[in-house]
Each structure stands twice: as C-alpha cells, then as structure tokens.
Design a protein that fits this description.
Blueprint lengths: L1 H10 L29 E13 L4 E15 L2 E5 L3 E7 L2 E2 L1 E4 L8 E6 L4 E12 L7 E4 L11 E4 L20 E8 L5 E4 L12 E10 L6 E4 L2 E4 L4 E5 L1 H10 L3 H12 L7 E5 L8 E2 L4 E4 L12 H8 L7 E3 L5 H20 L1 H25 L21 H18 L1 H14 L3 E3 L1 H11 L3 H6 L2 H6 L14 H15 L10 H14 L3 H11 L7 H11 L9 H11 L3 H13 L3 H11 L5 H11 L6
Parallel strand pairs: 1-11, 16-17, 17-19, 20-21
Antiparallel strand pairs: 1-2, 2-8, 3-7, 4-5, 4-8, 6-7, 9-10, 10-14, 11-13, 12-14, 15-16, 18-19
Helix pairs in contact: 3-4, 3-5, 4-5, 5-6, 5-7, 6-7, 6-13, 7-8, 12-13, 13-15, 15-17, 16-18, 17-19
The chain binds ligand BES and zinc ion.
The site of zinc ion has 4 residues, from helix 5.
Length: 621
C-alpha cells in the first residue's frame, strides 16, 4: 500500500504546498522544480565516493545521504538520467521507486523505508551518471589549453546537479558534504570544498564542505591543473600553460574580499580560489563556494574584466549564504549580487569605475525590457513564475539589472549608511537559510521602509509588476559623457576619437550606443579601419563588435574568419547568443548553420540547448 501511495505521489509533478508555519526556522516552501518533500525528510549530509571514468564518460559511485525525517513513509529525491544500480540501508536493499521521466525535471526517486522514520536515516545510492548528463562536459585534450590531457567540469545551477548526483535538487535544501574522488593518475580534481594544491600520484582526492550548501553549488573539475597562491586566503587553479597569466590577472582578489567584508561582514567560507576553465565553459563565472569557476575570456592581460570576480565573490554572501528559496526568487541571488559587485568595485577601483558599470547595466536593462514587453511581458517581473519552465529562462536582465536598480532605489530612499547596516543584519540574520521574495519584502518593510516610503518608491509595482517603472534611478554617465560626445562627432563628421585612453567599458559603451543610434556599413567599415576592432583580443569587445557589424553585412578583411574562429573556440553563451542572432538578422542563416554544425560538438549542453532553439537546429537522435 505504502508503495502504491508513493508511486502515485511520484507521478505528480507539482507537489502540495509544504509550508509548515508552526516552525518558521525550518519553514519549507514548495519548489516547483524539485520532487523533494523536505518537510517529511530533508537531506542534511552527503557522502560521495566516486570514480571519474573519461572513457565511459561517467561518474560511477555511491552517494550516502543522511536525512532528517519526520514520520516519513517515503523519502523523495531528484535524479535525471542517472543509472541507479541499487539503494541500500545498512548494506541491505531497501524498497524504492523511480518516477516517470519528465523532460524538464528528470525522474523522481522515492525510497520506501520498511516503516515510517522519525530522526536520522541514511541511504546509500549506488549509481552512475549518463554519458550525456547535462551538468557534465567531457573535453577531449584538443579542447584544452595544454592539448595533452582530457578535462571534465560540472555546472549544477540551476537544476542540473541531479544529472550527476542523486539529491534533493532545490535551492531551499542545504547539506554538508564529504567526497572521495578517484581520477586517472596525473590529473587533479577540485571541488566546491577544501581542495588539494598538488597532484596526487594515486589519483585519489578527499574533499570536505563543512558549511551547509544547496545542491546547485555542488561542483567538480578534473584536469591537468596547477595551483598558484595569490594571497593569504586566495589562489588560482588553471592549466599550467595559463597559470601565471591568470594569477596576475586576479592578483587583486584579496583587496576585493577586504572591501566586501568591510561592507557586509566576514567572509564565511575561509578560502576563496578561482578556477580558470577551458573556453567552452558556458558562463562567465559560477559562484561555487570556495572555488569560483571562470571563463578564460576574462583573462585580457589588463585586468579590465575583473568585475566578474567581484560578482562571483559577492555571491559568497548573496546566494551562497542567503539563498533564493526557489528559482522564482532568482533576483534575490542575482540582483543583490550585482548591487554588491558594484559596491566592491567602487571601493577598490573608485566611484567612477562603478559608475561605468552602472550605466552599462542600465542601458542593457532598458534594451531588454523593451524587447520583453513585446514578447513576454510577464517575464519582466522580479517575482517571476517559472513553474513548468526551465529556470534558465530567468537568466535575463530582469533578475540582474532590474533587481539591482530596485535596490539602488531603496538605497536612495534611506541613504547608503542605513541601507548598508540593514544589509549586514540581513545577511547575518539569514545566513545558511533560504529566502523568498515575499519574506524579503516583509522583512524590508518591517526593518527598513515605512508604509509611506514603500508607497513613494512604488515598491509593489517594482517587485510584482511588469516593465521598468519610470522612477528607475539613473545617474549621469560621467566617464561616458566623453564617449557619447565622441560618438556624436564620429557619426556627424567621421572624426577620430581619443581612444588611446579608452578602457574596455568605454568601448562597450561606444559600440552599444552606436548600435542604438543606427550605424551604417560605411561607418562600421571606417571604424574597423581606424581602430582594428576585428583584431581585438578582448572577447567582450569582440562580441559587441560582431553584434554591430554582422547585421550591417560588414565583411571586411578577415572578418568572417575571425567570427568563425571565435564561435568555434569560445562556448560562453552570453557571446554566442548575440553573435548567432546577428547572423540571423543579417539573413545569413546558412553561414550561422555551417559554423554551428562545426562548433556544436565543442559547446556545453547548456549552450547547445539555447542555440538549438535560436537556430532551429534539430539534433539527430
Ligand atoms: N550564478 C550565475 C550563473 C548562472 C545563473 C548559472 C543561472 C546557471 C543558471 C553567475 O553568478 C553569473 O551571474 N554569471 C554571469 C556573470 C556576471 C558578471 C553577470 C555570467 O556568467 O555571465
Ligand atoms: Zn551571479
């Protein structure tokens, strides 16, 4: 009977609301992207013993999961594509069921204890990952810098941890972990945990994460890695060929941590290292605790893209310490982090610098909101409804830049000092807990804003409404004023600009505004002649240049080859999307498809999912 009930529950994708108001400290919110029922049985610790098999493209091992149970007759977990060999308790098989496969959520697992459990329960899940597990990218040696060793990295956010570890895969559940990982000898393994600094001859590594974290922060990378310390608690992992350059680029990380601590309290994770990945990494950065994963495209040789480090570091508070309860609350992770990122940058590099970042954020936000209001106005709400949808859909300027501007508005209303004190207490009060939008707003109104101020800033409209309210705070763009003047001069007279002193951000402003004002082919041709943008080695500038020049049919000397090289070597989705879009806009579907077909095997699944949709590509399967 118990089994039948469990089976019926597993087939239901949307589970009943699990709020338990009687115990607010342990309050669980229904998560539309997880099968877990934490009010009944919540995962508190994970012990992983696994081997990484490059030939089989599989992670094979045992996940021993400790649960805290309350009269639990069934215990629910998430999995996606995992091959479950057996589940045992005290070395004896236990009843369990595998739910039906759902394209978005994978298959729930339901463990059925012999009798209802209260208290601690430990189950050992013997399993292997599938070769096409979405979280895993298995790279051939040619796809690395060194070209001699293979490489593996994981990307668990948002709901991909379940493709390599059976777990309660929602951001509202936290657990500590230990892992023992066996890799081919000669390779180093690193995780979002305590890490080695040298290669172990036997290929066996042990890891500990003693602070409880949500599953989306589970991370592993394996490759020919070396470590270089950059400060008392900072360092860089990279392939030997790029280690020195990487360590130079990120030498100011300790200064950023000190600035962050001065703002919002002590760094809670002891060590903060950076891992530079091969170029197919689909994101700029991923805030895996103790070890941020990074794209190599931030290594420019001039430290001009280090705000990305400030961003991932800021997540050590906003996100990793206080975590969005579900992906509907994603802006609580990213909006706060952009705000915090800019504060760190202002403290370390000056207000002027932060002001440039702010102007770029605002311009990007306005563009994206305008586009969104035509197609999906509902997605322009901070409080987004993602049930039945891929949480990736929330990775837009709304969570990041509308969230950021909302916090700027609150800051303006109460003053920086008061807002800082509020945020410090907020992080402290809620550390190692999750937060929903509604609870945050209630806390904000309780601790910081009276009813009149909430009304005056139009808080309700900002959080629960669509579009960008017209009281969005905007500053004069200081250092960009010269850029905008130069742009006018260039557009009206084709005059040269004082670009020698321009930094990456000034170029980004120029290219963005030029696109908005409508450049023509002869103008972009002249621009490339004067400033050699096609030859830029800065991926941010390259991508902005491509997005401008491709739709105008610019085909200058070597331009197409450079675009092709870029698309076949870089897998960062933020650059791929606008570049392929520009090709479609230019009516050059054939060009886009030819490159895509060649480049696709080198991209991460996160990127191919988006590009397949964009280009209408149907993978043969
Ligand atoms: N946590 C995000 C990356 C992410 C979000 C991965 C959602 C999967 C799902 C990370 O902190 C991030 O925001 N990265 C940005 C860089 C940042 C400077 C805006 C990126 O990768 O572009
Ligand atoms: Zn982020």
């Amino acid at each position: 009977m118990q089994k039948i009930v469990a089976m019926a529950a597993l087939s239901l994708l949307v589970l009943a609301c699990q709020t338990t108001p009687s115990n607010p400290a342990n309050r669980q919110v229904m998560d539309p992207h997880s099968h877990a029922r934490p009010a009944q049985a919540i995962m508190t610790h994970l012990d992983l013993a696994m081997a990484v098999d490059f030939r089989a493209k599989a992670i094979i091992g045992t996940a021993s999961i400790t649960f805290d149970c309350h009269d639990a007759d069934s215990i629910f977990l998430d999995s996606d594509g995992l091959i479950i060999h057996s589940i045992t308790v005290d070395d004896k098989p236990v009843d369990w069921l595998h739910g039906e496969a759902n394209e978005l959520l994978g298959r729930g697992i339901c463990i059925v204890p012999s009798e209802p459990v209260t208290g601690t329960y430990v189950a050992d899940i013997h399993y292997a990952s599938a070769p096409d597990a979405t979280a895993l990218q298995w790279l051939r040696p040619e796809q690395t810098n060194g070209k001699t060793q293979p490489f593996l990295f994981t990307q668990s956010q948002a709901i991909l941890a379940r493709t390599w570890i059976p777990c309660q895969d929602g951001p509202g559940v936290r657990f500590t972990y230990h892992a023992s990982v066996k890799v081919p000898s000669g390779l180093m393994a690193v995780m979002s945990a305590t890490n080695p600094t040298t290669i172990a001859e036997d290929g066996v590594y042990e890891f500990d994460m003693r602070q409880p974290i949500p599953s989306y922060l589970m991370a592993l990378a394996v490759g020919d890695l070396a470590f270089q310390s950059t400060g008392p608690r900072t360092g860089v992992y990279a392939e030997p060929a790029i280690l020195k350059k990487s360590a130079w680029e990120f030498a100011e990380t300790e200064a950023m941590i000190q600035a962050a601590e001065a703002l919002y309290g002590p760094y809670a994770w002891d060590q903060y290292d950076l891992l530079v990945l091969p170029a197919s990494f689909p994101f700029g950065g991923m805030e895996n605790p103790r070890l941020t994963f990074l794209t190599p495209t931030v290594i420019t040789g001039d430290r001009s893209l280090v705000s990305l480090i400030a961003h991932e570091l800021a997540h050590s508070w906003s996100g990793n310490l206080v975590t969005n309860a579900t992906w509907n609350d994603f802006w609580l992770n990213e909006g706060f982090t952009v705000y915090f990122e800019h504060r760190i940058m202002a403290a370390v590099y000056g207000e002027d610098y932060a002001n440039m970042l702010r102007a770029l954020s605002h311009a990007g936000l306005v563009d994206e909101v305008n586009e969104m209001m035509v197609k999906h106005p509902e997605d322009s709400k901070l409080d987004i409804a993602l049930e039945g949808r891929n949480p990736d859909d929330a990775m837009t300027a709304i969570a990041y830049d509308k969230g950021f501007h909302f916090l700027l508005l609150v800051e303006e209303a109460v003053g920086k000092e008061t807002f800082d004190a509020f945020l410090t207490t907020y992080f402290q009060d809620h550390q190692f807990k999750s937060m929903t939008t509604d609870r945050f707003i209630a806390y904000l109104k309780d601790q910081l804003l009276d009813a009149a101020t909430w009304e005056q800033i139009r808080g309700e409209e900002w959080v629960y409404g669509t579009g960008l309210p017209d009281n969005c705070p905007v500053l004069p763009p200081l250092r960009f004023e010269a850029v905008d003047l130069a742009l006018d001069g260039f557009l009206s007279e084709g005059s040269l600009m004082p670009q020698d002193q321009w930094t990456t951000h000034e170029w980004l402003r120029f290219l963005d505004q030029l696109g908005n004002k409508g450049a023509n082919l002869s103008q972009v041709t002249a621009l490339d002649g004067m400033y050699h943008l096609t030859a830029s080695s800065n991926a941010e500038i390259q991508a902005a240049w491509f997005a401008l020049a491709i739709p105008l049919q610019y085909r200058g000397d070597g331009f197409q080859t450079v675009v092709e090289q870029f698309l076949t070597s870089v897998g960062r989705r933020k650059f791929l999307t606008p570049t392929y879009k520009a090709m479609l806009e230019a009516g050059d579907q054939d060009w886009a498809m030819t490159i895509y077909q060649a480049a696709r095997p080198g991209y991460h699944a996160v990127a191919t999912q988006t590009m397949d949709d964009l280009l209408g590509f149907k993978p043969a399967s």
